[in-house]
Amino acid sequence: MTDKELAQQIVNLVGGKDNVNSLIHCVTRLRFKLKDENIAKTDDIKNLDGVMTVIKSGGQYQVVIGDKVADIYDQVMPILGLKVDENRASASTNEKKEKKNIWNSLVELLSSLFMPVLGPLASAGILKGILVLCTVTGLLTEKSGTYMILYAASDAVFYFLPIVLGFSAAKAFKTDPFLSAIIGGALVYPTMVSAYSAGKALHFMGIPVILMNYTQTLIPIVAAVYLLSIVQKYLNKIVPKQLKGIFVPLLSLVIVVPLSFLIVGPVTSTLSQWLADAVLWIYGVAPVIAGFLLAGIWQLAVLLGLHWAFIPIFLNNIATKGFDPINAMLYCTVFGQVGAALAMSIKAKDPKFKELSISATISGFLGITEPIIYGVTLPHKKSFLMASIGSAFGGAIAGFSGAKMFGGFASGGVFGIPMFIGNHGINSAFIGFLISLVVAFSIALVLTLILVPSVKPSKKDTKETTEVTDSNIESPLSGTVMPLSSVNDEVFSKGFMGKGVAISPSLGEVYAPFDGEVVSVFPTKHAIGLKSNSGVELLIHIGLDTVNLKGKHFDTKIKAGDTVKAGQLLEKFDYEAIQKDGYDITVPIIITNSNDFTNISILKSNQAIEHGDNLLNASNQSSDNVIHGTVTSHA
């Protein structure tokens, strides 16, 4: 299956582009926000070749792809009719606002703030660690030009973090990204940093300014951009339209920058310091127990989306203290998963699973654990447990040795190891950290080899299909029959959704085409999914792009789960009003499980039809005048 075909299948199975509010992607996952998750065919998506699994977390419908996620994302976006964002982090349609619980809102905020910058932070952190290793081993000196240039490349994202976070915070709070970056730039402006370093006293209009060093900080700029979003919203209401282009940005800077230095910065910096002190105090009370518990549950926390609450803590510890012990205790969890995956690949008797687990193991060594978790250990729950047990003991050793992460952010894998050396060189804490990785890996490997059954080849190489029988399908509408290829939507016309036919309606009524069950009724009432007693799965899609009407002109008589009889009225719609609103009223009628039938035939084509007339035949019988696997006409 090509990337484009996989992308199309995913879009179809999540409910089509009409069911997608927005889409972002991270290192391994497509993160959809769907209008109705119940419409998505989760089991079918999981069985796609190229998809590892599907998870629902933090209000997102996440399709786990693995290393090729960016390629699939690039193929999905045009299908959704969206442009690929330049930072490859997000794109959305006109999203309908929905009520969210506090936790989902917090997860969404933290992920939108930090997901776009985690890649650069991790890369810069790894480069910092490599430079430390080079100076410890004598390959470079801190005064060499090579070191200075590479250190500038590695440290810039941290030093100017308020500017970088200004952009992502602006997107999160829906305000001007350039003004947000300018505010971040003001916080780290060299003159202000020098004034702080010199202990200079400053006043703003007679009010004393508590100077602080905002380089490498994160909470002050986030709070400042949130303030900017409020100020801009107010200014846009009161400033005349003709003056907005100049005076809204001008007044925003004049208001927000001074308030950031006078109130927002000092308050949030103090809170940041308190947070770091509290975390380190808890860590200091019982580091061994903390390491054992946190590392033992960490990968489960990642699955549940709880890890987003910790990332600001890691970064805040680095910004305020220059080091972080928490991520040092959790780093071994990657190697625990790698050990379990390697054991599963050694034991595997299924060639396909062996190939998958070996590939996932290699990705794990590089710090990407999703292919391991979703493709190897989580589907075989005992191996996930063994990985967690190994990680717990590794975390305890890291806590006992006092291991710390210095000067950056490490996302995992062998390339991040130098970040734990620090300026004091290789010491007992770093050696203890290395031991924690070896212990997590070894315990997970041995326990999985001993206690987890090997994966054997499945009895069936293909997914088992629904048992179906021959079936005639009556026309659900009155109108004129059209070939599906003439529909002005390639999702239907090219057969991506399945084989079928289209009708240009002459009456705004939809009737049941067979005895069966209502599988789904789209919230906007423009699409109905049915399943016949003989196994036919049918989609009736009333009009094209009519999801934008949000239910206007539609009157549904049934709901999902209802049992229906052939000829029963399902829905009424005002097709003339829909046309007046500028929408194509063509109704595609699709057999979505077309692959379950040998032959699908159109019984009437390019002619008038009444509801209740025979329209389609789905058959598993061979026929001389029907081409295998294609739709032909008998009219």
Automatic annotation (TrEMBL):
Where does this one sit in the cell?
Answer: Cell membrane
The UniProt entry, under Gene3D superfamilies, shows: Glucose Permease (Domain IIA) (2.70.70.10), Glucose permease domain IIB (3.30.1360.60)
Which SUPFAM superfamilies does its entry note? Answer: Duplicated hybrid motif (SSF51261), Glucose permease domain IIB (SSF55604)
Query: Which sequence ranges are marked TM in the entry?
Result: 147-166, 178-198, 218-235, 247-268, 280-306, 326-346, 358-377, 384-406, 426-452
Q: What is its main location?
A: membrane
GO CC annotation, single: plasma membrane
Protein EC: 2.7.1.211
Q: Which residues form the active site?
A: 26 (phosphocysteine intermediate)
Tell me the ranges covered by the PTS EIIA type-1 domain, including all copies. 489-593
Keyword field contains Transmembrane: yes
Q: Which residues form the PTS EIIC type-1 domain?
A: 108-467
Q: What keyword terms does UniProt attach to this protein? A: Cell membrane, Kinase, Membrane, Phosphotransferase system, Sugar transport, Transferase, Transmembrane, Transmembrane helix, Transport
Matching entries from CDD domains are given as:
PTS_IIB_glc
Q: How does it sit in the membrane?
A: Multi-pass membrane protein
Q: Enzyme class, one word?
A: transferase
Q: Which reaction does it catalyse?
A: N(pros)-phospho-L-histidyl-[protein](out) + sucrose = sucrose 6(G)-phosphate(in) + L-histidyl-[protein]
Q: Ranges for the PTS EIIB type-1 domain? A: 4-86
Q: What GO biological process terms does the UniProt entry carry, in alphabetical order?
A: phosphoenolpyruvate-dependent sugar phosphotransferase system; trehalose transport
Which Gene Ontology molecular function entries are recorded, alphabetically?
Answer: kinase activity; protein-N(PI)-phosphohistidine-sugar phosphotransferase activity; protein-phosphocysteine-trehalose phosphotransferase system transporter activity
Q: Could you tell me which InterPro entries the record lists for this protein?
A: Dup_hybrid_motif, Glu_permease_IIB, PTrfase_EIIB_Cys, PTS_EIIA_1_perm, PTS_EIIC, PTS_EIIC_1, PTS_IIABC_b_glu, PTS_IIB_1
* A Pfam family matched in the record: PTS_EIIB
Record NCBIfam families: PTBA, PTS-II-ABC-beta
**Purpose:** The phosphoenolpyruvate-dependent sugar phosphotransferase system (sugar PTS), a major carbohydrate active transport system, catalyzes the phosphorylation of incoming sugar substrates concomitantly with their translocation across the cell membrane. This system is involved in sucrose transport.
For this protein, the record's PANTHER family field holds:
PHOSPHOTRANSFERASE SYSTEM TRANSPORT PROTEIN (PTHR30175), PTS SYSTEM ARBUTIN-, CELLOBIOSE-, AND SALICIN-SPECIFIC EIIBC COMPONENT-RELATED (PTHR30175:SF1)
Spell out the protein name for this chain.
Answer: PTS system sucrose-specific EIIBCA component
- Which lineage? Bacteria, Bacillati, Bacillota, Bacilli, Lactobacillales
